[in-house]
């Protein structure tokens, strides 16, 4: 490839088979490896991740997004989509569409005896607020800066430490 083609490839193409997977674990329920694919690309409104979840485990807590839509594509294996209080079987080739909003709390569970591998695609809408129904907590965050930090991020339990709207205001 010429220099221009190489620069374009670096901005536009990621191969999840060649990406370095990082562990995302919290025993006893969470055991996965994954990689976020969009950072460093030209993408501004789409995020993508590749995840491998071990048998009997899940990647993240049951949650919902108020801003972002997500899509999951099962590449290998099978498991269960916990969504809106129901358990739905999923398998290789399934594509799941999860709209934003309180009706669609979701979580992918590996209920099989082999790893499940899937792609996650999201609209990366910011700012974002996520709610975690099992624990009663929420997360509010702004877009990541170039240095990887955020201008604002808070993870709290609703009703704990809440302040009056006028607290510390002149």
Write structural notes for this entry.
This protein is mainly beta and 170 residues long. It has a domain at 20-125: Jelly Rolls (Sandwich), CATH 2.60.120. 6% of the residues lie in helices and 41% in strands. The chain contains 1 helix and 13 strands, in the order αβββββββββββββ. The chain has one helix at residues 3-12; strands at 22-26, 30-36, 47-53, 64-65, 70-76, 78-83, 86-91, 95-98, 106-109, 116-122, 128-132, 137-141, 153-157.
Characterize this entry briefly:
The chain is mainly beta and 170 residues long. The protein is 6% helix and 41% strand.
Strand-helix topology:
Elements: H1 3-12, E1 22-26, E2 30-36, E3 47-53, E4 64-65, E5 70-76, E6 78-83, E7 86-91, E8 95-98, E9 106-109, E10 116-122, E11 128-132, E12 137-141, E13 153-157
Antiparallel strand pairs: 1-2, 2-3, 3-10, 4-11, 5-8, 5-10, 6-7, 6-9, 11-12, 12-13
């Amino acid at each position: 490839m010429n220099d221009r083609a190489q620069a374009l490839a670096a901005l536009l193409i990621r191969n999840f088979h060649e990406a370095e997977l990082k562990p995302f674990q919290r025993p006893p329920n969470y055991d996965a490896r994954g990689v976020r694919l969009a950072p460093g690309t030209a993408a501004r409104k789409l995020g993508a991740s590749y995840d491998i979840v071990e048998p009997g485990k899940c990647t993240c807590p049951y949650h919902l997004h108020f801003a972002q839509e997500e899509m999951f594509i099962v590449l290998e294996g099978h498991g269960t989509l916990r969504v809106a209080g129901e358990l739905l079987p999923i398998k290789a080739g399934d594509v799941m569409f999860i709209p934003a909003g309180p009706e669609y709390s979701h979580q992918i569970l590996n209920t099989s005896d082999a790893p499940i591998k899937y792609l996650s695609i999201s609209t990366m809408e910011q700012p974002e607020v996520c709610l975690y129904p099992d624990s009663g907590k929420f997360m509010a965050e702004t877009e990541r800066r170039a240095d990887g930090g955020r201008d604002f991020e808070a993870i709290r339990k609703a009703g704990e430490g809440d302040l009056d709207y006028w607290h510390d205001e002149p």
